Sequence to fold (94 residues):
Amino acid sequence: MRRFIIERDIPDIGSAEREQLRDAAGQSNSVLQAMQSEGKAIQWEHSYVAGDKTFCVYVCNDPELIDEHAERSGFPATVVTEVRKIIDPTTEKA
Fold:
């Protein structure tokens, strides 16, 4: 499957309390489970919360599934970018 970074503009998300983040994760997970039960291959790996944005890492074959998840969950997919390559500190020696 392909990997995507999703930039989501969500005002005040950086100051959200733990309970609010739990609720958001639960809402996203519920939509993902529903989509997966419909035979749609999409998975959330993790997200980074920074200021008024989240940066989410998802894997799926069709980026339209990201838009569908955004619409169904209520979390905007402001910018969706496909990850083409991954590098890390060990890349220098690979």
Remarks:
- The helical segments are 18-37, 64-73.
